[in-house]
Amino acid sequence: MRRRDMRGRNPLAGTIRVRAEQGDAKAQYHLGSSYAYGEGVPKDHTEAVRWLRKAAEQGYAKAQYGLGFSYFEGEGVPQDYTEAVRWFRKAADQGDAMAQNGLGYMYDHGQGVPQDYAEAVRWCRIAADQGDATAQSFLGFSYFHGKGVPQDYTEAVRWYRKAADQGDTKAQVVLGNMYYYGQGVPQDYVEAVRWYRKATNQGDKTVQAALTIVYFKGQGVPRNYIEATRWFGKVLASCFAKTQGGSLARWMSSIVGILSALLILVVPQRRWGRATWLPLALVSVALAAALAHELLRSGSFSALLARGLGSPYKGFGRVLWLALLAVGSAIFAIGAVMEAVSGSKRGGDQGQPATPVEGTLESHT
User: Fold this and answer.
1) How many domains, in total, are found in the chain?
2) Looking at per-residue confidence, does 136 or 240 come out higher?
3) CA–CA separation, 277 vs 259, rounded Å?
4) Furthest-apart CA atoms within the chain: distance in Å
């Protein structure tokens, strides 16, 4: 659920204030939205609620939904789910799709009303039939999991596709997964990758792991270890970015990333074919990424050393950690190069007949 986004579409607050003060409901709604987003006026949720309420009490559906959302979030008023439902219902009864979707959300979560999955589906279906992408995605979710409706993968695909075609990234990811696993549609790796790419092109990062797998296995795309490595790097970068809030989480992100990369070495060598150097290269990249992560979060290496001088134990520990990352990355990189060179030599010898071993039949012929 979301507030209706009016940014960039509101007239200047000064030009509509006069009309709003004269009782024009549409102007009151726009002025309230301006205060909610801080467009043309300082952001002020209390003032936003005041103007939205004036328009809502005149029956303006968009303002009724906006006021309900303020109660839902507790912006400008104390949070009150019951009051949010009351205003959502007023707007939904007038056909406002966002309010209908919001009312469905409240029934789905049991906020302000008793939890009722069937009623949630009923309201979201009304919104979905009007083309609301969020409601369409919710219907897809409901059919996929059998919440409020019988489980039906084919119907789930139908609604997810409607939302995905409108650019809903969550729907695009799930639709890609359904093609990947053959749920509700024939299994089709090419189509799965197509939807994954649509989602990632819009900034979705949840499909980076999926793209790593399809390139590694050659599913829907030609097998490409370099591309798989690139997407794997994005996965690690996303993990690091999500853990910027605490020092412990940042340290754990580095360690988990490294351990995940080391697992690559456990993969049987036959799975890598002739690219036996790739596991070493991947580990080297992971260690280098962890090193870059540590340096970036420290501001600069010189700042890190300065802190180390002020606290010898802590500074020594962190510098030692960085040194281990740097040396480890270099060792694995060198190992990868040496393995690639030796692999190339082995490949050049493949056309020569094997040297007979003394004592075998061939050595006596």
Assistant:
1) 2
2) 136
3) 18
4) 111
Q: How far apart are CA 174 and CA 162, in angstroms?
A: 12
42 burial via Cβ count (<10 Å: 0-12, 13-18, 19+): exposed
Look up residue 37 and give its amino acid.
Y
Is 159 part of any domain? no
> What span, in angstroms and rounded, lies between the C-alpha atoms of 53 and 32?
9
The more confidently predicted of residues 75 and 238 is 75
Give the structural domain span for 317: 247-343
Q: What are the tokens at 23? A: 């009782």
Could you tell me which residue, 24 or 241, shows the higher pLDDT? 24
What is the CA 218 to chain-centroid distance, rounded? 23
Q: What is the DSSP string of 190-208?
A: HHHHHHHHHHHHTT--TTH
The mean pLDDT value of the chain amounts to 77
Residue 71 · residue 79 · CB < 8 Å:
yes
Query: Is the confidence at residue 254, as pLDDT, over 60?
Result: no
Residue 43 maps to a domain: yes
Q: What does the angle CA 358 – CA 362 – CA 364 come to, to the nearest 5 degrees?
A: 70
Residue 58, both tokens: 């005149």
Mean pLDDT over 335-363 rounds to 47
- What does the radius of gyration of the chain's CA atoms come to, in whole angstroms? 29
- pLDDT-derived band at 118 (thresholds 50, 70, 90) equals very high
What are the tokens at 75? 């912006």
Which CATH number is 42's domain given? 1.25.40.10
Element (H, E) at 108: helix 97-109
**What's the pTM value of the predicted model, to 2 decimals?**
0.66
Higher confidence at residue 241 or residue 115?
Answer: 115
CB atoms within 10 A of CB 179: 24
